[in-house]
Amino acid sequence: MEKLKKALKTLKRYGFIYLIFVKNCLVRQMEYRANFFLSIFLESCFLGTKLVYTFLISNTNVDLNGLPSDSIFIFTGSFLLMTGFYMAFFYFNFSNIKGYVTDGSLDIFITKPVSLQFMTTLRYVDFSTMIPNFIGGIIILIVGWQKSGVEVSFVKVAGYIGYLISGVVITYSVMLAPQLLNFIIIKGYALGEIADALWDSNSMPMSIYSKPIKIIGTYVFPLFILSNFSSLFVLDKLGAVNIIWGIAAPVLFFFLVRLLWKNIIKKYSSASS
Amino acid sequence: MKKFKKYIKAFELGLQSSMEYRANFALSLISSIFPMIMQIFLWTAIFFNSKEQEILGYDYMQMISYIVIASIINKLVSTGFEWDIAEDIKNGGLNKFITRPVGYFSYRIFSFLGSKVMQLAVVSVILTIILTVINSKFSLGITPERIALFLISIPLALLINTFICIISSSTAFWMTESWAAFIFMNLLVQFSSGGLFPVDILGKGFMKLLDFLPFKYIVYFPTNIINGKLPIQEIFTGIIMQCLWIAIMFILAKIFWKIGMKKYIAVGG
Amino acid sequence: MSAIIEVKDLCKEFSYYEKDVGLKNSVKNLFLRKKLIKKAVKPISFEIEQGEVVGFLGPNGAGKTTTLKMLSGILYPTSGTAKVLGYTPWERKNEFKRQFSIVMGQKNQLWWDLPANESLYLNKCIYEIDDNSYNETLSTLTELLDVKDLLKVQVRRLSLGERMKMELIASLLHKPKILFLDEPTIGLDIISQKKIRDFISYYNKEHKTTVLLTSHYMADIEGLCKRTIVINHGEIVYDGELSKVNEVFDNKKIIKLQFESPVETHLLEKFGKIRGTEDLKATIEMEKSNVRANIMELLGRFPVNDFNIEDIPIEEGIAMLYSKGGKALEKV
């Protein structure tokens, strides 16, 4: 009982600190309005190119290894939503990690009585990249939902949101890992490039890939889970095994990345100067 | 000759720094493979599930060979020094060049080429291997003629891209948010150069628009030389167009740069 | 009574790769790299009691910051032990973190684009300070440092001195028992430096906070610390009262003279040891007590058009310490 109370108290405290982060970031972004709007504009351009391509593919009216061409919109919508989450809450934090190491900010974080991982990976929230992706994503999702004739039932919606959440946790774990490995390979930005290139491989449903790739992408480096599972669930194409895996994987990989984090920090503390 | 020595040194420095960042280089090569792989799978799935032999003007072999070749060429002609130039402009690094008998343009270009040499060497080898494989499997009809024209078109494409990059960099003279201009230009070039997918699948209207812009000559044009899609006559016309665009871009780059430098010096660096 | 900080044989080594100049070596580096070891901190030992203000003095690269980083838990030592407030710092227990603070002169913990009070509030939540304590402490500190009106100003708009004051406040909100300061006055103008020093001195007297500060400015140490630990090349070269160190460093001063027309060197010899002459310049080392009289005579007799009175640079002083038989470890 005591442990539970303590855990809740800590949760409340971290929640409060996180809200302060959000508030601080919002104030900060509003300070630089030009940057804010430019960022929204650019992100919308990226969005635009993805949509052009999606429309193109769907217009070929060919089904993608079992997925009717109209359903592609659901996948694109999910992908955009995930991209929104990733960019808003994680991306800038993850790509800053190397900077923290070189400029010594990490040292200061270490001395604070707050989880280092929490502080480093969640400190920044970006609203400008969030907005176009969320709006675009939801619109396309609805378009796809209707075009594919999926009913709007409680189960479907709840399940979709559930797998979306699982997708967010997986995103955190799977996209953090390459940046942590950057600690070991000190100079360079290329690991980040690879991670980002991999991210975009989700812009099309995973049905297009060959079996071995699908297996790796779902069970080993589960990038495909993030936008595919929620979409597949809604289309009633998520097999029983995957329904369970979609719930277990986020937990598993979160623990794995936490372990990786702890090990990397140990290494850092032995080696920085 | 002495005058030239400093540019050779710039070249060397570029080469050295690219070797320092060797892990970087290897990884960035690998990372450019993923989009290509996704495209291959995508179009394979489309063609596999379709009753048609030809989609959007390409048959399966043509599409796949385009995607592979274009990705490689994309890497060959890529630039990316706009960030360095912007740095110099913002932090006054340009001052070093104003006060010394070294031309900034030339310095940058030589340094860039130096860092590109290793990349070019490795990628060219890869390209040769890939082409031989594709040619044997899909018989693209690669004649020595085509190869020669292709080899001419590549440095031309690189030059076009280089000048676009310089023009793009010059926005740093006027905007603090030049990063936005860079990203926008990069996106524009990526999309319209044909680096990811053949731009003609976007329809006749779009192609007409591209006819008035230099972008398609960066990747789309060279790729279609070597994969046999373009008839010889059109290739010659195309190369002339490349030269024309180089001239235009060069003049534009010089103009932008001149105006920018005036402002830079006026403000005091 | 056991010391609040106990350090025994603490040692830190770093490994790094050698890079030679030239194209040929770059190519060689592609395949083979030579690994070298740097001994940043050779085994050092010392103890600090509660309430002391101790200065770590030494030139750049001496190992001061590395030592501080080990004591604050940022770095793991290669060998040796340390106990701060009874904790082993690199175990990084939260209870330990809540009782100390570290301020690094060149690094900000405050959010750059926001008013200082937002960052301070964040610290309140991180250290779990209750509202009353927070308001009271904030009010007292801002008055002491005279920055009350600056709380709402964005950190990036503050001057370096004002920023440093905010950093100090941020680090004292949770009433730490130990304060680590790494080059706190670096880059500040003389007035700000003095204000910061006075504040630290006052705070230490009021709250009996133990202060450990590193600097390569003598003035910091002179102004604040009774006890100084001099570090050079990772070793403790002197540990004791400042006044004794002064005897080694400050007994002598260096006078740099600039003349309008040449002056013969042998005419200057009576004033002290000639360190160097050049064209129309001369550098003379003399006893501190003679400086005033000597200057007056020099100005009177020779065509001096500029002069400077300087301290003997620390590196030389430390070299002097070394030559006087190495480590003279005196404790107060």
Descriptive overview:
- Chain A has 273 residues and is mostly helical.
- Chain A contains 11 helices and no strands.
- Chain A is globular.
- A two-stranded antiparallel sheet of chain B has the order 1-2.
- Helices cover 76% and strands 1% of the residues of chain B.
- Among the domains of chain C are: 5-99 and 176-247, Rossmann fold, CATH 3.40.50; 251-311, Alpha-Beta Plaits (2-Layer Sandwich).
- Chain C is globular and about 70 Å long.
- Residues 325-332 of chain C have low confidence and may be disordered.
- Chain A binds chain B through residues 34-35, 38-39, 41-42, 45-46, 49, 52-53, 56-57, 60, 62-65, 185, 187-191, 193-194, 196-198, 200-201, 203-204, 207-210, 213, and chain B through 20-21, 23-28, 30-32, 34-35, 37-38, 41-42, 44-46, 48-50, 55-56, 177, 180, 183-184, 187, 191, 197, 201-202.
Primary descriptors:
heterotrimer, A: 273 residues, mainly alpha, 0% strand, globular, B: 269 residues, two-stranded antiparallel sheet, 12 helices, 2 strands, 76% helix
If interface size is counted as residues with C-beta under 8 Å from the partner's C-beta, which chains form the largest one?
A: A-B, 38 and 34 residues
Indicate the mean pLDDT of chain A.
88
Within the largest sheet of chain C, what's the order of strands?
A: 5-6-7-3-8-9-14
How many helix segments of chain A?
A: 11
The overall strand count of chain A is 0
Question: What's this model, at a glance?
Answer:
The complex is a heterotrimer of chains A (273), B (269) and C (332). Chain A contains 11 helices and no strands.
Secondary structure elements and pairings:
The complex is a heterotrimer of chains A (273), B (269) and C (332).
Chain A (H helix, E strand, L loop, with lengths): L1 H30 L1 H27 L12 H32 L1 H6 L5 H7 L4 H21 L6 H28 L8 H11 L10 H10 L4 H10 L5 H32 L2
Helix pairs in contact in A: 2-3, 2-6, 3-6, 3-7, 3-10, 7-8, 7-10, 7-11
Chain B lengths: L1 H19 L1 H10 L1 H17 L4 E2 L2 E2 H17 L5 H10 L3 H4 L5 H35 L5 H27 L7 H15 L11 H8 L8 H7 L5 H36 L2
Antiparallel strand pairs in B: 1-2
Helix pairs in contact in B: 1-7, 3-4, 4-7, 4-11, 5-8, 8-11, 8-12
Chain C lengths: L4 E13 L5 H9 L3 E14 L4 E5 L6 H8 L7 E6 L9 H4 L2 E5 L11 H11 L4 H15 L14 H13 L5 E5 L7 H18 L2 E6 L2 H7 L2 E6 L2 E7 H8 L2 E8 L13 E6 L2 E7 L3 H11 L2 E8 L2 H10 L4 E2 L3
Parallel strand pairs in C: 3-7, 3-8, 5-6, 6-7, 9-14
Antiparallel strand pairs in C: 1-2, 1-4, 8-9, 10-12, 10-13, 11-12
Helix pairs in contact in C: 4-6, 5-6
